[in-house]
């Protein structure tokens, strides 16, 4: 299937590793020129070089901290200056700490909201005038199933994700008339570089062994395993393509049919 992506330009946040890197690779393989951002310059530059070598596409690396409005604006404006347009914006940067309400401080809530939610707001706000001027665009927000499948250990991610999901639907209704469409992708657990740390945190907070904590998520998924990065990246690549532009103002879970209640029961 020709996704009609050759020659398009994508801006992808949080793309030095994990899901963001996987999305950048998948898009570049389909002929997209990409701009990626992250906070760690060395890791970001190494990823950019890896993507160039693997795909032959133009890849621009821009260091940015999306908790800062000026960095978000600089990232988006630099992409537009370098490529002349932004066809696709993939918001992916950021994570929110897990934990239970008794042990979560206000800093954890603010950390999640500043990056996982406000980072998306800042990039979208900067990109919209560019997309309007060029006659359209596509925004894919990587959010997470915590916003629609609640869990007491994931209340900060859940709150941030619910806000992002509402934002996605709201803006789809406002900007469709400008040929700018929005979609949210809600992954469940994904095997990234962060997975081991998440399991360690669950083990600590729930007083479980690492081995038991590591099986909580797979045991709540009918397919019996967590997702691989490539599976999420493939979905996003299709949704970012002109073939899926009409998919607007909706959310798609990619979590193997996860049933969070099974995790909560296992935690006790």
Q: TL;DR of this structure?
A:
By secondary structure, the chain is of the alpha/beta class.
Structure description:
- There is one protein chain.
- The longest helix is centred in the middle third of the chain and has 29 residues, at 106-134.
- This protein is α/β, with parallel strands linked by helices and 268 residues long.
- The mean pLDDT is 93.
- It is globular, with a radius of gyration of 18 Å.
- It contains 10 helices and 9 strands.
- Helices cover 50% and strands 16% of the residues.
The strand line-up of the biggest sheet is 3-2-1-4-5-6-9
Q: What is the strand content?
A: 15-25%
Tell me, briefly, the overall form.
globular
Oligomeric category: single chain
- Could you say which structural class the secondary elements and strand pairing correspond to? alpha/beta
Distance between the termini: 47 Å
Mean of residue pLDDT? 93
- The CATH class assignment is Alpha Beta
Say what the CATH topology is: Rossmann fold
Helix percentage: 40-55%
Largest sheet geometry: 7 strands, parallel
CATH superfamily: NAD(P)-binding Rossmann-like Domain
- Strand/helix succession: EHEHEHEHEHEEHHHEHEH
What is the correct CATH architecture?
Answer: 3-Layer(aba) Sandwich
Total helices: the number is 10
Runs in which pLDDT lies below 50 for 5 or more consecutive residues are: none
Number of domains: 1
Number of strands: 9
């Amino acid at each position: 299937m020709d996704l009609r992506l050759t020659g398009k330009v994508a801006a992808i946040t949080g793309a030095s590793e994990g899901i963001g890197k996987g999305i950048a690779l998948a898009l570049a393989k389909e002929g997209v020129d990409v701009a990626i951002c992250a906070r760690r310059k060395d890791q970001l530059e190494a990823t950019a070089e890896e993507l160039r070598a693997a795909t032959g596409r133009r890849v621009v690396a821009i260091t940015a901290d999306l908790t800062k409005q000026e960095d978000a604006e600089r990232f988006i404006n630099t992409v537009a200056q370098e490529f002349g347009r932004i066809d696709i914006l993939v918001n992916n940067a950021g994570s929110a700490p897990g934990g239970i309400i008794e042990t979560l401080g206000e800093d954890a809530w603010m950390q999640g909201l500043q990056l996982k939610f406000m980072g998306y707001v800042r990039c979208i706000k900067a990109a919209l005038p560019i997309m309007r001027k060029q006659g359209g665009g596509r925004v894919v927000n990587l959010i997470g199933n915590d916003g629609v499948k609640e869990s007491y250990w994931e209340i900060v991610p859940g709150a941030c994700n619910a806000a992002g999901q509402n934002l996605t639907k709201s803006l789809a209704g406002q900007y469709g008339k400008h040929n700018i469409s929005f979609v949210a992708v809600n992954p469940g657990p994904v095997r990234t570089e962060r997975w081991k740390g998440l399991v360690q945190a669950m083990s600590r907070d729930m007083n479980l062994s690492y081995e038991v904590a590591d099986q909580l998520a797979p045991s709540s998924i009918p397919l019996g395993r967590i997702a691989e990065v490539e599976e999420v990246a493939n979905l996003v690549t299709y949704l970012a393509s002109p073939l899926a532009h009409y998919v607007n103002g909706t959310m798609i879970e990619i979590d193997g049919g996860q049933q969070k209640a099974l995790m909560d029961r296992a935690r006790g």
